[in-house]
Amino acid sequence: MGLSIPDLATRRSGTAAVPFVITNMVIEGDSQTSTTPDQSTNRDAFYSYTYADDPANAAVTIHVRAQASRTVGGAAYSGPPLEGADTGSPTGNTLLDHRSDDVAFGPQLLTAMLGSNDLGTFSVDNTIAKWLAYAPTVRGAGIKLGVVAPPPYHPGHPSYGAFMPLWSDYVSRLRTPSVRSTFADYYIPLGEHPDFRDPALVDAMINASDKLHLTPGASVITSGQYRAYQVYKAAIDTIRDQSRTNSSSMYGSSWPTSETNLTPGATITRRVIIKGIAHAGLTSGASVSGPTGTTIALNGGIASSVVGTNSGDGRAIYNGDVLDIAIPLSALNSTAVSIDLTIGGETRTITYTTTANVTPATYAHQDVMNVQPADSVHTYTGLAFDNVGIGLLAIYSPAAAPTGISVGGVSATRLVKQTTDFSGQLSIWTVPITATGVRNVVVTLPTWAGQSTLSWGVVKNADATMQQLSPASDGSAPTSEASPHATGGLTVPANGIAVAFFGEYGGTSITPATAGSGTTLIDEGSGAYQGESYGIAVGTRTTTGAASFAFAFGTYPRAAAVFKAAGT
Hints:
Shape: elongated
Strand content: 35-45%
CATH topology of the largest domain: Rossmann fold
Strand order of the largest sheet: 16-24-18-22-21-26
Mean pLDDT: 92
CATH superfamily of the largest domain: SGNH hydrolase
Low-confidence stretches: 1-18, 76-82
CATH architecture of the largest domain: 3-Layer(aba) Sandwich
Oligomer: single chain
Helix content: 10-25%
Number of domains: 3
Distance between the termini: 49 Å
């Protein structure tokens, strides 16, 4: 399409064309788009109102005129009817019957997602004929018309087998420029989003009860309406940008970018939603080349090397189309593979590099020890440190957290503490361990304490920067809690490790804690003083999730630190 279109007066007079700027638009459709025209409630359920209500679109007046059960033309259709003669079902609920209503809003752009109700009764030829009857009134008023593909049925719908061949034929015709251009200016592939036909996702995309409507919530990333909104926004944002009228390339921000630290030997898939190409689409399509097995698929279609051309799947590419590019990565560490991705008239080389051959971070635990000096300074004498790396200590006592800890005369750094209302505090500390050997650990408490329990060890091959703490800051332990006793969620990077500590408290004797699901118990130790036991259980995990411990009902502190491997 050109950069401008003439209005009716311009066409009649032959004077210069006026710029095509969208300040007013109408969104038509059926119950996938709106329940009633311009409804005031439940607007966030639909892609249409989410787009209309976006503050970024405040400069455009948007009328959502869609209504449940609307068709292009109703059961009485037998040729282009007179205005008002097409009764439809319910009476008058057809696009043909509302031509004058839509034109009266004075839009520069009208989009309509219709066809599901028509195809449920009529042939594809009949539905296309209705579009041909509708379009002259709208386009003759200088309004650009965008036809939107409806979504498919859920495979569990009783009419799925009869409907889907009609849907596929209808979408294929809409995608074919020589067909679509006879009645519409633009094609918007909303109903073609591949997740609507993905067996693993369809139950989340399409309503489980009626097997027909997209699941609501256009801002809910797991819903069908969110997918509809993604496609619609990509298409309409581009159509509103007149600098892209005849563009042969996407917006730069829509392209995938090079990546590093990928798993060797994996095949990854990267998704692109086309945005920024020519308003009417491009027959030049999209293609990809790269290592053996690299493919591109258009809207969930057949994976190949080229799509969206007359010789490739899809006939053309349109704004809102979804491309899925599969890239086999090298089986070797620190090795890059590159693909050449062409979309329209632009080709970009994108590189995907596997992770370095790193040594995983590990935790070399030494021991858990209890001392009972009945003092404010607790000295742990002659503790072995058999590895170099990040010394990691946990201290649990009836007193408040230590004011300081020194390890062989080197001050440790407190990371975080967690308090309880009656059973003391647990805190974790780090200190550099640059050489192996025996050291004294001196714990200075703010008040007298009869006993304390210390866990110590060294995190090896780890980056010095802490990745995560749980809790993230000082605070109180969960109260009156049943087993398992869990930390917050821990995000453990590949080759990283999380080390967790749990404070055990009880009477003269306690049943030692055990590790919960996903946590490996490393050690446990405790001591009793004047009828009270204080102990520490130590666990690790190498995958993302909460660390947890099984122990008696009660209020107990816990803390964890996450480390990543050095060089990652």
